[in-house]
Each structure stands twice: as C-alpha cells, then as structure tokens.
Amino acid sequence: MPGIADQLFLITGLIFVCVTIITLVAIRTVEQRARRRRRFSTASIVGARADVDLVERERSWTGIDPGRLGLDAAAQRELRVTLMRAGFFSTSAMPAYAVIRIAFLIALPLIGLFVALFTAASWGVTERVALVGILLAVAYYLPPAYLSRRQRHLENRYRLVFPDFLDMLVVCVNAGLSLEAALDRAGRELDEEAAAFYANLELMAGEMRAGKSTGDALKALADRLGLPEARSFVALLQQTIELGTDVAQALTVFSDEMRDKRLSNAEEKAAALPPKLTLPLGLFIFPVVLIAVLAPAVLKVMATLPH
C-alpha cells in the first residue's frame, strides 16, 4: 500500500538522520580528544583535569555548550557532581551524557512507533500508544537509573577501601611525609580494585597544584566520594590544620574509630541475616525437605493400599 510505504520511508529516514547526527558528534569528540592528547602528550592528566572553569573546557573539548542543552549553572554543577560520583571524570562527560539522553529519547520512541505500525499490525490504537509511551518512559529514566546504580556500586567500593586507605595514610604520616605526599603515596599503595578511589585522589592533587587550597580540595574530594566517612575525615583534617594539632595522632584515633565502625557494621549485617533467611527457607527449602522426608512413606502407603 502507498500509505504504508510512505510511512516506512519517513520513519526510516528519521532513524537514519538521528543515527547520523549521533555518529558525527561521536566522531568529532574522538577526533578532538586525539588532537588534544597529541598536543599535550607531555602534560599530566591530573593537571589537565584541574582547570578552574569546567564549562569553558567542556565547550572547547566537545564543541557543545551545556547551557544550550537546557541546563542552567546549578543543574550543571549538580550533574557534574553526579557524573563524578559515578566515576566519569572526563570533561566531556556532561555534554556526552546530555547527547546520549537526547538520543535515547528520540531513538526508542521511533523504534516503538515502527514496531507498532508495521510489526504489530493487529494491535489497536491503545496498545500502540502504550508501547510508545513505555519506551519513552524507559528512555527518560534509563540513563539516570544507570548513573544511580553505578554511583551506589562505587560508594560500596569506596566504603570498603576507605579504612585501608586510612591505615596506609597513618603509616605514611608517621614515617615523616607531609599530608599531601602521604595522600598521594597512600593512594598509590592501594590495589587495582581501588583505581576509582585513587582517581579521586589524583583529581584532588591536581586541584591543589592548580592553586586550590587544601581545605577546598578536601571538601571537593568528600563531595565526589559521597560518603559520610569521607566528610568526617575531611572535617578532621581541616580542624587539625586550622588548630595546628598533631596530624598523625588525629589520624590514628580516627582510623581506630573507622575500624570499630566497620566491625559494628559487619555485626549488624550478620544479626540481620537470620530474619532475611526466614522467608526463603519457608518458601523453597522447607517444602523440598518435607517432600523428601514424606515421599517414601506416602509411596509405601499407596503401594500397600488396594486400588
């Protein structure tokens, strides 16, 4: 039918245009990234990350102004912190996230419209509209859900690594290193599983080399980690620096408290385990055990009884 052919041509053309735009943006981003990497091949990655004006760097990096994507200054700062907590430290992360989200909002409803018009021909109007609406909702909530899940995963890893980092920091400070050198050395001594945690320490060191004060750099570190333990750690270091007290002694006391807190958290999780196991045991394991115990007796009774 001519009408169906025209609709198919229109939808195919729209999908082609969307894919072409996304591909061109991705190619441009990769080319500019490679050009910048060649230009600053001798520069430190940390120094490149520590620029003061992040918006200007993102505009020059990707050619995309985050303000043109409907994000004001407060929303940009909030999104930037969210992306950093999720482990995306690149300066192009915020424009790339906005482009990916727009691409999802365009591509998934178009796919649903194509399926509703041509694959599910027997569906009614309500089913087709529902399919497009569901895909639109999925496209809207999927990127934030992914960031939230990745952020929770990294926070759990940070929470596991943080006590070991404190112990290593205490050793480095007691060995005579300065606070900045001890932070860098303690981060480098961690294993490969703490790479994301060390990336936050690298970024903090780059900010300090760029001229940011130690207190502000520590506050930014606590915001990126998103842990109550990190905020307490930063508050302790700030008070220690301002009051001029012994850093090693303060870190030793704080490390002991963190170790006790980790032990108490483990005991709480162990105490909460039996109630959580009650429902699975009652629904799945107990019926199986009951059948295994009673099945032989039931079979013998059935065999002895007359038909």
TrEMBL record:
Presence of the UniProt keyword Transmembrane helix in the record: yes
Residues of the Type II secretion system protein GspF domain: 165-294
Membrane topology of the entry: Multi-pass membrane protein
TM region positions: 6-30, 102-123, 129-147, 277-299
GO cellular component, one term: plasma membrane
Location(s), subcellular: Cell membrane
Assigned keywords, A-Z: Cell membrane, Membrane, Transmembrane, Transmembrane helix
Entry-linked PANTHER family: INTEGRAL MEMBRANE PROTEIN-RELATED, PILUS ASSEMBLE PROTEIN
Name listed for the protein in its UniProt record: Type II secretion system F family protein
